[in-house]
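Usage

Read records sequentially. Each one opens with the input sequence:
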Amino acid sequence: MSKSPRPAHRCTECGWETAKWVGRCGECQAWGSIVEASAPTMRATATAVTTPAVPIGQVDVSESTFRSSGVPELDRVLGGGLVPGAAILLAGEPGVGKSTLLLEVAAQTARVHRRTLYVTGEESASQVRLRADRTGGVHDELYLAAETDLGAVLTHIEEVRPALLVVDSIQTISAPGLDSAPGGVSHVKEVAAALIRVAKTRNITTVIVGHVTKDGTIAGPRVLEHVVDVVLHFEGDRNSRFRMVRAMKNRFGPVDEVGCFDLSATGIVAVTDPTGLFVEHHGRQVAGTCVAVTMEGRRPMLAEVQGLVTHSAAERPRRTTSGLDGSRVAMVLAVLAQHCGVRLHSHDVFASTVGGARVTEPASDLAVAVALASATRDMPAPLGVVAMGEIGLAGELRRVRDLPQRIAEAARLGFAVAVVPAERREDAERPVSAVPRVVDGMRVIEVSDVASALRLLGVIRDTTAEAV
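and closes with the structure output:
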C-alpha cells in the first residue's frame, strides 16, 4: 500500500523547501517565513499556439535592430544600442548613479520622439522631476509614474504604450496575491516575469534596476539574471566621480566592453578618453611610481601604480593596498625578495593607484614590482616608461593579451619606452634585454624576467645592464 506524500513546507522569502515545519528558514535564515505548500496538481495539455513556427530564414528581424540610446558609451557596452523587446537588468550599489544614468537615457530617447515611461518606486514624482530639471531631462515624450503595484504599472504601460520602459527598481514593486514582502524571491520573480512578458509581446525595451547585496552581487534569485537579455553592472568609488558600466551578459553583443562616465551635480556625461584620469603627469623623476597599461574590456587604459616602503616598528609589518589586488601584491613582494634581493620583511608596504582606478589584471604585476623596488631603493624609474607583464613565481615574465593595442595607447599618450615580456622562441635563446624595436613611435624592449626589467630601468643597481 503506497503512502500518501507528506505535505511539504516552503519559505516565502527564498523558496527553500522542507518536509516539516520549522520556525527559521535553513537557507535565508528568515524567521516565520515557512508555510505549508500544497502539492502541484496541474497537468500540461496541448493548447493553441500564438504564432506558427516558420523556418528561421523567414523570420523578420527588421523590428529587432539596434536603436541608439542617446548615450554613446552605453551603446558601446550594449553592442550598438537598445533592441526593441529586450529586457536589460542594471545593478549597482546605492548612490552610484543608476537613476541618473537611466533618466538621461530616458530623456535622450524622448528627444528622438520615442515615447518613454519612467516608473519609480523609490522616489516621488516630484523628486525625479527635480533631478530632471537639474540635468536637463524634461521632455514632453517622457512620462513619469510613481507606482509600487505591479497591476498599476501594467495599466500605465497599456495607456502610455512606450517604446522604452524604465523600472526603478524591481525590489520596490509588489505583486498582488503573494504573502511575502516586496523584494522577496517570489515577488521579484513574479514582477520580472510580468514585465518581460509585456516587453516581448509589445516590443518594448525594458530596463530594470536591481539592488546588490553587501557582497556586490545582484540581490534576488539568480533566475532573474537568466531570464533577462542583458545584465549590466554600474560601479564606481564614492570618493570619485568616475563610473563604469560593465556587461556581464549580453545576448546582442560582446560581454567584454566597458563604458566610462563622469557623474556630477549637473548629470552624467560619457567619458570617451578616460586614460588620462588615472595617470599623474610628473615634471621630474619620482621614486615609487610606474605606469601600467590594463585592458578594461577591449579598451586599453593607463593607470599609475604608486608604492611607499618605510621601516616598521611593529612586530608584523603592514601590507596595505588601494585599487590593487592584495594577494597579487603579496606575491610580487615574495618574488622581489626571492629573485631580486629586495627584502621587505621588516618594512611597511603601501601600494595604490591614482584616481581611484581598480587594477586587478595580472598584466600590472611588472608595474607593481617596479614601483615597490623603486620606493625601496629610492631610485626613480625613467620618465616616459610603461611596464606591462605578468610575473610568475619563478620570477619570469609572461606575455599578456592585446599587447599591440596597449603599446598603441601608450604611444598615443606620449610615452616613449615600453618594457614588455620577451617572446618565447623554440629555435634560439633570447637575450636578457633584446635590441629595442620601434612600434608606433615607441621603443619596445623585451625582457625575460623581473630582475632583468628592474636592472634595465635602473631601480636596482647592476653595472652589466644598459639602463633605459
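Summary fields computed downstream for this record:
- Confidence is low (pLDDT under 50) at residues 426-434, 463-468.
- The two ends are 88 Å apart (CA to CA).
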